[in-house]
Amino acid sequence: MKKYIRYRILTVCSLFLLCLSGCSFGDTQVMMRAGFSDNEVFKIGDEVCTLPEAKVIMTNYQNMYGTMYGIDLWKHEFGKNDLETYVKDLTISRLAQIMAMDFLAEEKEIQLSEAEEKKVEEAAKEYYDSLNEAEKEYMHVKESDIEKLYRRYGLANKLYTHLTQGVDDEVSDDEARVMEAQQIFVTDKDKAKIVEQQLKEGSDFLAVANVYHEGAETEITFGRNDVPKEIEEVAFSLENDQISEKIETEKGYYFLKCINHYDREKTDDHKSVILEQRRKEAFDDVYSEFLTTLSSEFNEKVWKDAQVEVKKDVKTDRFFEVYEKYCDW
User: Fold this and answer.
1) How do strand 247-248 and strand 253-260 relate by DSSP bridges?
2) What is the per-residue DSSP string for 184-246?
3) Entry pTM
């Protein structure tokens, strides 16, 4: 089975890890303190994230991630507790990052325009109207809560665009090039000599791989920086059907056969990944420093008591879809 490198668009959010004594938010320590109401999950500066707001995001995540490929992951793939922890951590992570970004937007005097505010209102109405009574009751949400969330996400998106607008968007084919190859990997030096000799004698590459390859996959797809430098230098100099010499690395010995030295479709996809990485780096240069100036508090008890409940009448998962429809500026 062919192993494809799964390129993921890097987001501006990092995991907001929870623990009993406190949790790390960038370089800021988030302390568990008294003084919260039963409706407040966390505070950043003077802004509060309420439980209904958090439950909107949590509910959408639980429905987006809970059932995939026709499989109920709540029952089969992870076990409820593991998936519940993931969904709840992801919810707090995203909301905390969005709120912090909004403070930075305020500092830089970035605001939503009247037209954008109108789009926020339209998005909130469409999403709220899509909810049934069971979903509204489960999340304890009002249309004004949805509007506040969309406004926060919209302002954060506008900040991100502002901070990354000067990033060079030219990515060369060579920088983004993705190739397909077959590999043989062995850890033993003597085995490497045997493989090397058999390949020089003209033995079929896959036949040798079936006997000696110690890795999980024989067929691989990769781009630059996805493999060690010593492998990259050799791999990207190969032509189709060409077999490399022995490549020695810290982990062992590799032999490569080039199947496709330039996969056009995957290369084009990889350009988007590289460009997004550049944008993230430009954003992080400003954002990471700003995080150290924020004070934060987290209401552990309220969030611990907020359970993910899988109910047949609570299926809403369109929050982000509606956002993109109206607010993707």
Assistant:
1) antiparallel
2) EEES-HHHHHHHHHHHHTT--HHHHHHHH--SS-SEEEEETTSS-HHHHHHHTTPPTT-B---
3) 0.73
**For every residue of 232-250, which 3-state class applies, written as one string?**
HHHHCCCCCCCECCCEECC
Task: Copy the structure tokens of residue 297.
Answer: 């508090």
Query: What is the crossing angle of helices 143-164 and 51-66, to 10°?
Result: 80
Burial class (CB in 10 A: 0-12, 13-18, 19+), 131: buried
pLDDT tens digits along 43-76:
999 999 999 999 999 999 999 887 665 556 666 5
**Is 15 a residue whose pLDDT tops 50?**
no
CA 154 to chain CA centroid, nearest Å: 19
**The tokens of 54 are what?**
């958090």
